[in-house]
């Protein structure tokens, strides 16, 4: 980070010093110094990008290839400008102008490739952002560049618009790309290139206005803008792009950079308000651009609301799923041990006492060993379904682990009712079940206890009674009996 700040400080200082010094230089020398600085910065970037071509792959390689072309063309164009200043060959200026235009057009493409790809709703939302920001930037350009250039130089509005459209689109794409909530490391290259594109577009528009008003080309910071843009590209070339993976919706809405597209829109509102007060009316072109821009802003907000709504529904569903997973057995979907203790304690607190049944399967291990664990899982799922079918809606059935199940009856029960429920369970389990293409039968041993104690104590008593049932020959029901006093 310190290295980046140092490089930026050098670039900004060079651009600022040039802007201060250039008015004191002869016109030709001032342009030559600018050409030298831009050629050095852009040429250095081209060399750095060229060295990285073989090191990168996929989207990253395309990004550095565009970087080579863009910075290389810009350096070459300014070298031609410099040769023209020295030797007086105007044809070189024409060739250089075309090279500069192509280089400027490639810059936002390289910036876009240096950022992670966008897909689906995020891509559609990004396109709307670019269109809306482009409309706002064009409105500002119309107010301060196109209308003035047409009035003072005789340049037609259509021709002036054609000259400014590439800069407007480049600035809009740059601002939207910079606004994405990229990682600290991965965001350096695209944001530096985005800043370069914005600065270059601003310098070109100011230079066009300067020419229309017959002011020196470097006036109002245009000279520093060209140098600064080239310097930013040179700094950006040294940073690798982020991983070739989507940013994700979680990063699409967060971060301070997200407000960046609203800056030109806000400035447009303020500027048109001032224009209305100053002149008393707005150009029809400006009115239609504003209407289109704000229609896109509304569409963007509608899309955002829909995305946020779908994310809220998805999040709610995920929370419910996580809650279910935390409180239910993954195999049988019965409440797990934690949920059994939580809900069982609530039932005891509500009624003052409860009946607790502990069930351990008989004959489960032989099935599991002979047919495999998948067959054992099928048996456990079938047992869970049969338990749910023989209890009432207010009763609690849970799988505690392995082949152990526990029940808490929903209302205080007498001994006869508890025995009736236990008999139904054993009768249900005795029916054969088809597992892995075979008919198998399992049984169960049940321990019962009733009382007003805490659930942990009642469960311990039911467990003791269940082991007594197994000791009595399995497939039986035993009630907990207090041990005889010694």
Automatic annotation (TrEMBL):
Gene3D superfamilies referenced in this protein's UniProt entry, alphabetically: 3.30.70.270
Domain of life: Bacteria
SUPFAM superfamilies the record matches: Nucleotide cyclase
TM regions (residue ranges): 33-50, 62-83, 95-115, 127-146, 158-177, 189-208, 220-241, 253-273, 285-303
Pfam families: GGDEF
CDD domains, A to Z: GGDEF
Keyword terms of this UniProt record: Membrane, Transmembrane, Transmembrane helix
Keyword Transmembrane: yes
InterPro entries hit by this protein: DGC-Regulatory_Protein, GGDEF_dom, Nucleotide_cyclase, Rev_trsase/Diguanyl_cyclase
Coiled coil: none
Domain (GGDEF): residue spans on this chain: 352-482
PROSITE patterns from the UniProt entry: GGDEF
Database matches in PANTHER family: DIGUANYLATE CYCLASE DGCT-RELATED, GGDEF DOMAIN-CONTAINING PROTEIN
UniProt cross-references to NCBIfam families, sorted A to Z: GGDEF (TIGR00254)
UniProt name for this protein: GGDEF domain-containing protein
Organism of provenance: Paractinoplanes tereljensis
